[in-house]
C-alpha cells in the first residue's frame, strides 16, 4: 500500500493543537489523502481560516462528526478530549477502519484504573486488551498489525524512552524512581482557561498536580512491563514558560556498578530512527527537537549519591502526539517509518 | 540541471543563524550536495556538534575557508558578516561559481552610499551594477541568469513586498512613507553581545537606530525602482522579545480614491508561490510563517486620516535570509522554485 | 487629610489585573485602609488565595458588591469591565463618595460616540461633562477637586503624553498623526479567552483591530483639546509576546523648522514626577518602567521625510491603569502625589 | 544606629545584575547613603545611564575601585565575580568596614574544596572560619555581630530553606537527597556570552552542569550542618526560558511515618518574615515572589514511592542575592529586618 493510491484519512477533533499538528504533518505526507476533518464547534469553517499557517496546503472544511462517513476512511485519528474516542471507536473498528487514538482512552489496560483517573466508567473495556500501545520503540511489530492504536501521552513518551534501557537491563532500583518533568504550555491543549493565559504562564514556572497526575498510571504501566517487576515512581510535572517541548529529568539509583551506561543506551537505540542518544556530557535542549519527531537522550553516570541521571527531550506535539501517531500510521500501512517525519528541529 | 547529478554547494560562514538555517533547508533539498561549510572560528568541528538539531542530517565538518576549493562548487553562499563576501566573490566568479551573498555587500548600487553606511570603501564596486538584487517577486528573470545574487535584507524583504503593489500602481504619496518594523532577536545574529542577552531582551520591547539604520538605503533604493520617482521613507526598527519573525506595519497616504486595494494585492501576488495575501480584515501573526518561506500580507484601506495600512510578516531567517537564498538558487539552477521550501509554518 | 486617619477605600471588581495591581500598590500606601474588595465570581474567597503574591499584605476577602456598604468609603475604585461603573457611580456620588473609574465609562464626553464604540446607550450621560479625565499631566487642578475621575486607558496615556508638547505648541501637522502602539498581553485583561493563551500569543506578534479600536476616540478627544483644532489620527495597536508594557511609536510631520524639540519636551515635563524625558539619542525599553508609575519618552527630530518620531513607554498596569488611579487619588485627597508610587522599574 | 544618621554604603562591582538590584533596593532604603559604586569597565559613567530604571533615584557615577576610599564606608557589598572579594576584604576588615560578599569567596569553610571548585587557591583562607554564612533563617544571631558575611548562592538559598525542617528533625534518609532546580537566566549574570543570548535560551529548556556545579559543595555543607550527619545529594540545575526566579523541586525519602509535615514547616517558619509556607495542596509560582525577598514553600507528603516532595521558590536576584544581602545588612546594623524589603511580588 506504500505505493499507489493514497490512503484515506479522517481526523476527529481537528481544532486542537494535536489536530492542527496532524494536519501540518499529513499535508506534506505523500501517501495520504485527508478526507475529513471534523469539529463540532467549527463545522463549516475552512481549516485554513482557523490556522492560517495551513493556507494553500489544506483545503478541507471542518465538518460535523455525524455528517461524515468516517467508515469509508482507511484510518481515523482521534485528536479529541478524553472520553470521546471510546464511544466512537467500536463502530469504526467494525467497519474495518484502523483507529489511532491520540487521547487517553485506550492507554490503560485496567478499566477500573481508567475509571479512577478519568472520572467515568470506560465505555468499551473489552477493547482495552486488544488496543496496542503505540510506542514503536518497544512495540513496533504489534503496531504493524493493530486495528486500534493507543498513542502514548507526551510525558509517558519522554519518560519511558528515557528509562527503557535501564529497566530492560535491570540496572536500577525500581521502587524509587523519580521523574521530574517539565512541559511547554501547548501540552495543556487549546482551551480557553485562565491558567493557560500568557499573563499567567509567561515569565513564571511552577509544578502542578504533585498529588497525582493522569499520566502517572500510564507511565507506571509501561515501566512495569519493561522491568518485569513492580515499580515505584514519583512523578512531578511542571509548566514551562514556553510553548513546545518536554524535558524529563530522571533519577534512578543503581543496584551495583552499572557498567558502561552510555554504550548501553547507544546500542539500545542504534536502529531507532527517532531516538538519538547524545555523546557523553551533552545536555539536550528542547529546541533541538522543536517541530521534529525526535527524542534526544543524554545519560550521566552516578555522582555522589548513586543516582543515574537521564535527560530526555521531545516536542510534545510531535513525538509526544501527532508525529508519533503518523509514525504509527506509517508502520501500520507499510510506509517507510520516517515518511512525512523528516523535519529537522527549528533552531534557533 | 534540475534532474540528474546534484549541484555542489559551498557555505562560507556557516556558524551564524543564517548559516545553520541554510543547512537546515539544504539538508533536505533533493538537488544539492553540501560540499563545504567553512568557519574560521569552528574549523575542525562537526557541524552537528554545534547544532544538535542537525545530527544525522548534516555530516559536514566546519573547515577553514582557505583550505577549501570553493572554486569547484556550482554555487557558494556567503552567510558572513558584511565586508567578507566582497573580498572573495571576484575570484569565485572568475572560476565560474555562482555567488549568492546573504550579507549586505552587493545590495546597494551606489558604492559611495555603501561606504557611508558600512564604514569602509567597497572592495569591488565594479560588480555592484552586475549584481542582481535577489527579490524574486520583482526580479525573477534576472535571477535565472545571474552570476552574482545579492540576497535582500530581512527588513527590506518585508517592507518591499508590503509596499510593492501600491508603488507600482502609483496610488500613494511617495515622499512620506512610514515603515514601523518589528523583528525577533535572531535578526541581530549570533553574536556574544550584551544587548542580545535574554535578560536584556526578554519581556521588554524597544525601538533602536531611530536616527538611521543600514537597511534604510536598501529599502529606499528598492522603493524608488518600484515607484519610478524619489521616495521619502521614515523607517523605525524595533526589537521583539521573541526569536523569529518580522512584522512590518506600513503607512502610506492615498493620492485619490484608491479603488479596490485588496483586489490589487491579490492580483499582483496571484502567481507568487511565497506571497500570500490574506482575506480582508485579517491580521497576520508572525507565527503563521515561522520556519516557512512565506510572506503573508494584509491590507487595510483608509481610516480617518487617509492612510492605507499594510501588514507584512515573514520569518526573518527564512524568507528574510536563508529561504529566499535557496529560492534564488532554485531559480538560478532550474529547480522548481519551491523545492526544499515547502515547510509549513510551525503553529503553535 | 494627608496625615491622621487613613481614608477608607473600596475596590469594585478586584479580581482582574488592574484590581490586583491596585491592591499591590494600596497595600503599602501609608494613608489608606482597604475596606472592601468586591468580586461577584470570587465572593467569599480570601484575596490572597487567588493572588499568592499578596499573602500577608492583604487580609481582605472578596465580597459580593451588593453586600458592601460602599457608601461608607471615602473613595471607590471601579476596576470592572466597561458598562458597570456607569450603573453604580451615581448612587455613590450622591452618598459623597469619590469615584475613580478605571474602565472606559466616563472617558468620552459625547454619549453618542460612547454608545457607538461600546455598543449600548450610556447609563448616565448627565455625568459625562462633570467627570474629570484623570491625566494629571494636563488636568492636575481639576483632579484635586473632582467627584468623579475617569482614569485614562493605557494606550491613550502613552500616546497623549508622547504627543502633548508637539500639539500644545502647534509644531506638527494635525490631520495625519500616526500612532503605532504595542502592548503586552496583560493589557487585554484576565479573561479566559483563546487568543490570550500563551500558545497563541507567545513567540509571535501581530496587529489587531486595525479597522477601529475603542481607544481611538479617547485619544482623538484628548489630542483635539491639546491642539485646539481637529485631529486626524491613524492608530494601530499590536500585541507583544510579553506581559507588561506599552511602547508607542508616534509619527508627526513638522510644519516648519521645529526648533529644539528635545528642550521643549524637557521643559514641558520638568516638574512632572512621573514623566521622564530621556537624553537625546536614547531608546526607552519598556522594562525601564516595569512595575513603576513612570512614562519615559524619547524624541527624534526629522529624518528624511520630515517626521518627528516620539517613543513613549509605560507599564500598562501602573501608569496605564492602577498607578495612575492612585496618583489621582493622591491628588484628590491631598497626599503627596508620589505616595505609594515610588517603586523603581524592575530590571532585568 | 537604626535611627539617626544613615550608614555609608559602598558597592564594588555595581554593573552586574546583583549590583543593579542592590541599587534598586538601597535607593529606597531609608537608613543608607550610597557613597560609592565601583566598576572598572564603566568608571566615569553615571549609574542611571547604564540602568535607566534608576534615573532620578540613584545619582552616583561608577568609579574606579582604587579611586574610592571604601575604608570610610560602614559596609561594603561585593557584587563581583568570584575571586575578587577575597583579595580586597582583608584590608577593609582591618579598617573596620563590614563586608557583605555576594560572590562565592567566603561561602565554603574548606579552603581546599574552594580551590577545587573555583580553580585557584583561596587568597585568605584564615578568614573562612570567621565568615558568617548569611542565611538569616539559620544563623540570625551570628549575622548580627559579623564582620564578614558570606551571602548565600541563589540555588543554595532555595534548596536549604526547602529542606531545613526535614533535616533538622531527622525525618528523611540523608544519603540520597535529590534537588532538581530550575533558574531564570539572570542567575547566570550579565555577561556577553553566547549561551545566554535570547536566541539560545528563549523558548527552550535544558539541564546543565549535571556532572558537577559549584553550588553543590555549598549546599552539601549547609545540609550537613542541619542534619548533623553526612549527606548525599544529587543536584541538577536547569535553565528556564525566563529572566527571574528559581524553583527547587526537592525529593527526600522518609525514614518512618513522618507525621504532620505541613505543620512542621509552618512552625519552623512561623516567625520568619521572608519564608512563607503555603497551604496544603498549593504549588508556588515563581512569579509570586518576583521582585520580592520572599521564599514560598509547599510540601507534599509521600506519594507511592515514599518521597516527600518540597517545592521552594525565590527570586534569584532578591532572596537569592541582593535582597538577602540587604536583609543581612539590616540585621547587622540594627535596622528592622524588613526595612527596604517590603516590595510585593509583581503579578502578573
From TrEMBL, chains A, B, C, D:
InterPro entries: AGPR (IPR050085), AGPR_AS (IPR023013), AGPR_dimerisation_dom (IPR058924), AGPR_type-1 (IPR000706), NAD(P)-bd_dom_sf (IPR036291), Semialdehyde_DH_NAD-bd (IPR000534). Its main location: cytoplasm. CDD domains: AGPR_1_C, AGPR_1_N. Belongs to the NAGSA dehydrogenase family. Type 1 subfamily. This is N-acetyl-gamma-glutamyl-phosphate reductase. Pathway: Amino-acid biosynthesis; L-arginine biosynthesis; N(2)-acetyl-L-ornithine from L-glutamate: step 3/4. Keywords: Amino-acid biosynthesis, Arginine biosynthesis, Cytoplasm, NADP, Oxidoreductase. The lineage of its organism: Bacteria, Pseudomonadati, Pseudomonadota, Gammaproteobacteria, Methylococcales. GO terms for cellular component: cytoplasm. Residues 8-146 form the Semialdehyde dehydrogenase NAD-binding domain. It catalyses: N-acetyl-L-glutamate 5-semialdehyde + phosphate + NADP(+) = N-acetyl-L-glutamyl 5-phosphate + NADPH + H(+). The keyword NADP applies. It is found in: Cytoplasm. Its EC number is 1.2.1.38. The active site is at 154. GO terms for biological process: L-arginine biosynthetic process. PROSITE patterns: ARGC.
